[in-house]
Amino acid sequence: MSNEDNTKPSEDTVQNEPLSSPENTAEKSETNAQNQENITSEAKQAGENAQKMVGKLTASLLAFSKEKPKVFYGALVGVVILFAIMIFSGGDSSPSVSGPAIKNLVIGQRYVLQSPNTTDKLATIRLVAVPGTIAAYDDTEEDDRTGGCKHMKQGTPVSVLGFQDAYGKQNAFVNVQIEQEGPCKGSSAWTLAINVQ
User: Fold this and answer.
1) What span, in angstroms and rounded, lies between the C-alpha atoms of 173 and 77?
2) What is the pTM of this model?
3) What's the CA gap between 84 and 180, in Å, rounded?
4) For 15, which DSSP code?
């Protein structure tokens, strides 16, 4: 298209009349009034239709309750029971995570070794000579796994000799003395406080 074509008035162009002419204002107010009347009549008609639907539904429910009262009231009771189950089955809005907790251990008291992290009854609990080395021990040698009372069976009776703070937690490690009859009786070692129950 050339510039000359752009400057020519096209047939599709609408000639604008002044907006403030009295004829335009009167036409606009008539159009607005007609639109408002249409909207009002549509709203009234929708309201009437809703009332008719509710009336028909009520009439059909009443007819059904008279024709088959056992089915009607049985269904009504079923809905009420389902609604009650939904209301009363709601749980606590703030579920809390619970896990094993460290007991308030007392020096001189007797306890048992029990790992909260296993369900295996044959699992053993690691005892070490120095607190804090539990996380870094290497038991690749057979002697590390079986020798020197380093792994004790769960349920082994022990008595508490002392505590050691670690990692910002008070009494994280416990010095225990083995009370079970056998070659380890009387020997002392350290374990995590959570393993003493």
Assistant:
1) 60
2) 0.47
3) 56
4) P
